[in-house]
Amino acid sequence: MEINNTVNPKSALEALFPQSIDCGEGVVVKPFSLATYALLEKIGSYIIFPHEPTQEETLASLYICTHDAKETFKKFDLLQDLSIEWAETLRPEMFRKITDAVLKQIDVVKNAMPPEKEGDEKKAVTDGSQV
After folding, report:
1. pLDDT reported for residue 89
2. Distance CA 96, CA 74 (A)
3. pLDDT of residue 18
4. Distance CA 130, CA 99 (A)
5. For 83-86, which contacts have Cβ atoms below 8 Å and span 24 or more sequence positions?
């Protein structure tokens, strides 16, 4: 059995027991769940598929990361309107805090995964994601 000495045990524990990040003003970025990931994937979010996002996509992505995934799925057809209404309640500097918290939550997940070996190939595609 080969031991991977590059994995940080603290990162692995953070991934197993991630913490919500309080951004202030009642905004909390929760740990990423499969439902959160699925919603971000469904909108083609820059968080999952790196690209230059539109303002509407940025707001929708941040809304998804700060709201209950189950409720967001129920209201998915209203996501653009909901995210704009939500954004109008926030001070401009909050968007940087929320974005930073989202990036921290992504890092928790990424840091817990072992690095891919060179030559590893994806085995299947499910709903646009390669696994």
Report:
1. 96
2. 27
3. 73
4. 25
5. 83/56, 83/59, 84/56, 84/59, 86/59
The two tokens of residue 30 are 């929760």
Supply the pLDDT for residue 10: 65
- The Cα-based distances of 10 to 17, 26, 116 in angstroms read 10, 28, 19
Amino acid occupying residue 41: E
Which of 105, 35, 95 shows the shortest CA–CA distance to 62?
A: 95
Average pLDDT over every residue of 34-56: 95
**pTM, two decimal places:** 0.75
Q: How remote is the C-alpha of 39 from its chain's centroid?
A: 9
Residue 27's contacts (CB-CB under 8 Å, 6 or more residues apart) are 66, 90, 94, 97, 98
Ramachandran assignment for 119, one of left (phi > 0), alpha (psi -120 to 50 degrees), beta (any other): left
Give the per-residue pLDDT at 59: 97
> What pLDDT score does 19 carry?
87
Q: What is the 3-state secondary structure (H, E, C) of 2-66?
A: CCCCCCCHHHHHHHHCCCCEEEECCEEECCCCHHHHHHHHHCCCCCCCCCCCCHHHHHHHHHHHH
CA distance linking residue 116 with residue 39, whole number of Å: 25
